[in-house]
Write a structure and sequence with these properties.
Helix content: 40-55%
Distance between the termini: 29 Å
Structural class: alpha/beta
Strand content: 15-25%
Oligomer: single chain
CATH superfamily of the largest domain: 2-enoyl-CoA Hydratase, Chain A, domain 1
CATH topology of the largest domain: 2-enoyl-CoA Hydratase, Chain A, domain 1
Order of helices and strands: EEHEEHHHEEHEEHHEHEHHHH
CATH architecture of the largest domain: Alpha-Beta Complex
Number of strands: 10
Radius of gyration: 19 Å
Shape: globular
Number of helices: 12
CATH class of the largest domain: Alpha Beta
Strand order of the largest sheet: 1-2-3-5-7-10
Length: about 260
């Protein structure tokens, strides 16, 4: 399949796919066409048993510098409501397989929100994360006011959102927004290697573990613990659980099949 705004490699490594946002002149600003291509391909990858982890990146200059303002500037509130742009974002949120964001340069507005939708974030030393929507008369609308405080806490999130001031990669790491900072020439390869490591784990366990971690942000501790236990017990119906524990006892490397 050919795309206009993304570049796809389903096998950048065995069981690892890579999607690169591809509007370089616009610093990968997220228009509806790009989001349609991205969400459609992620849905296909979620159904593909050969894909166990996905890396999502931009280029060295920008992961995504925000939403496409020209696409929205003259719309009315009713236009925005009818367009229902954020329904596409919900498809990413429901992705069962892990997504690793590889971020270099700008991750602003919708770009920051898209990175936060991913499960892990590897950033280059040049990465900048921000929610500058306040500077153009609006506010975050794709999860920024909800996910950012959960990641970095109320104080930092309030300052970023109410002043539009971004934070750099080291600040993002210290705040808990990202997993690691690497030199710019290594940011994509580091993210791919992290995806490879995850892809070597038992796929069903990875899926249920991801679901359980995300539940921690949606439920009480008691409800979350119950959800975790059910998923833990469920994995004892899998062949990978038998293989993993036998391999541990036999002191050999397990061969996980996703069964």
């Amino acid at each position: 399949m050919s795309f206009e705004f993304i570049v796809v490699n389903r096998q950048v490594r065995p069981h690892v796919a890579h999607i690169r946002l591809n509007r370089p002149k616009e610093l990968n600003a997220l228009n509806s066409a790009m989001m349609g291509e991205l969400t459609g391909e992620l849905k296909e990858m979620d159904r593909d048993p050969e894909v166990r982890a996905v890396v999502l990146s931009g280029d060295e200059r920008a992961f995504a510098a925000g939403a496409d303002i020209r696409e929205m500037a003259e719309r009315s509130a009713i236009d925005m409501y009818r367009a229902d742009l954020f329904s596409q974002w919900e498809l990413i949120r429901r992705m069962k397989k892990p997504i690793i964001a590889a971020v270099s340069g700008f991750a602003l507005g919708g770009g920051c929100e898209l990175a936060m939708l991913c499960d892990l974030i590897v950033a280059s030393e040049t990465a900048r994360f921000g929610q500058p929507e306040i500077l153009i008369g609006v506010m975050p609308g794709a999860g920024g006011t909800q996910r950012l405080p959960r990641a970095v806490g109320k104080a930092i999130a309030m300052e970023m959102i109410l002043t539009g001031t971004p934070i750099n990669a080291e600040q993002a790491l210290a705040a808990g927004l990202i997993n690691r900072v690497v030199p710019v020439e290594l940011f994509l390869e580091e993210a791919i290697q992290l995806a490879v490591k995850i892809s070597e784990m038992p796929p069903l366990a990875v899926r249920l573990a991801k679901e359980s971690v995300l539940k921690a942000f949606e439920t009480s501790l008691e409800e979350g613990l119950q959800y975790e236990r059910k998923n833990f017990y469920l994995l004892f119906a899998s062949g990978d659980q038998k293989e993993g524990m036998r391999a541990f006892i036999e002191k050999r490397k397990p061969r996980f099949k996703g069964e």
